[in-house]
Each structure stands twice: as structure tokens, then as C-alpha cells.
Design a protein that fits this description.
This protein is α/β, with parallel strands linked by helices. The protein has helices spanning 21-25, 40-46, 62-67, 80-91, 99-109, 115-125, 130-137, 141-155, 160-169; strands spanning 32-36, 50-54, 71-74, 95-97. The protein has a four-stranded parallel beta sheet with strand order 1-2-3-4. Helix 4 links the parallel strand 3 and strand 4 (95-97). The model has no long low-confidence stretch (mean pLDDT 75).
């Protein structure tokens, strides 16, 4: 059954052991790699294409999510349509999660940001300035500015816009 005319399956393997070195080296021809099970972490380190992982163990994917864009973490219960949509999104460099695993991933991904920094990041994504952020949170403009600086440093961003962009790609801010 072909779900989408835009997709072409160029190979499949039942396990990592079934892949030979030639398959990993040929990964340059792959736009999106789809993996089911616990092997996504190992493959993500060896290949460069975008990755769609089907698993119900969200804690495994914190390292992948924090290190690269173009990743989807979906439940093994994801529908064919959801998988096709995820393939399209990760090919564009986005991060995608399924509702079944999003909560677990959010807690793993936000480990470096404090709860207050996460609140400030949400407001940055809404386009608020330091004064408006301070007012909404009941803190001084100077404290809001400090939180923004911490977010920029932790996300390794040069600007507020870049911080929001990075946060969106990592799934820290909903699209």
C-alpha cells in the first residue's frame, strides 16, 4: 500500500544487525530515515538525514532532540497519515512529536531551562518585549532581561528571534 506518491521507500531492515556498513555509508542518498524501536539513538549518531522515530519510550530521545533539528518522535500507534506528515516536517528541519509522547519529551528537553525561563521563552515566542514580560510575570524589566539573557546563553542563540527559532525546532515552543 502506497500512502503518499511523494515518498519512495529505498530500503528496509528488521534490525541494526541487518544493516551492513555499505548501507550506513549510503545514507547520503537518504532524505529521511524512519526507525521503529530503540535503535534511533545509535542511528542518529551515524547518519545525517532527518529522522522519524517510532517508539513509546520517550526518555531515549532527549539527546537526539537537544542536538539536532529534523527529528520526529512518534508513538508506535501513530497513523500512516501522521507518519507521512512527520516525514514532510522533518525534511524541512522541524521537530515533531505525537501527543502520546510530547509530555515526556517536554520534561526531558526542558532540563536546562528553569520553569521561569520556559515561561519567558513562551512570551518571547509571542513577541513580547522585556517590559511586557516583566509586567505579565510581576517582575522588573531588568529581571526579565536577565531571564532572556540566560535563555540566549542556554540555547546558544545570538538574538531573541534565533532563540525562538531554536526553541521551535527543538519542540520547546509549540508551532
Amino acid at each position: 500500500m502506497r500512502v503518499s506518491p511523494a515518498l519512495e521507500l529505498i530500503g528496509a531492515a528488521a534490525s541494526l544487525g541487518d544493516l551492513d556498513e555499505g548501507d550506513i555509508d549510503a545514507a547520503d542518498a537518504i532524505d529521511v530515515l524512519v526507525v521503529e524501536g530503540p535503535h534511533a539513538v545509535a542511528l542518529a549518531e551515524e547518519v545525517s538525514p532527518a529522522l522519524v522515530s517510532l517508539s513509546d519510550d520517550a526518555e531515549t530521545f532527549g539527546p537526539i532532540k537537544s542536538q539536532r533539528a529534523g527529528v520526529a518522535v512518534l508513538s508506535t500507534r501513530a497513523t500512516a497519515e501522521q507518519i507521512v506528515a512527520a516525514i514532510g516536517a522533518v525534511a524541512q528541519g522541524l521537530f515533531v512529536t505525537h501527543g502520546d509522547v510530547a509530555g515526556s519529551l517536554a520534561s526531558a528537553a526542558n532540563h536546562s531551562l528553569t520553569p521561569r525561563e520556559h515561561e519567558v521563552l513562551q512570551m518571547l515566542a509571542s513577541g513580547l518585549g522585556n517590559k511586557a514580560i516583566g509586567s505579565r510575570l510581576g517582575i522588573s524589566e531588568h529581571t526579565a532581561k536577565f531571564h532572556v539573557a540566560q535563555i540566549l546563553a542556554k540555547l546558544d542563540a545570538a538574538s531573541r528571534a534565533e532563540a525562538v527559532s531554536i526553541a521551535m525546532r527543538r519542540g520547546l515552543v509549540p508551532l
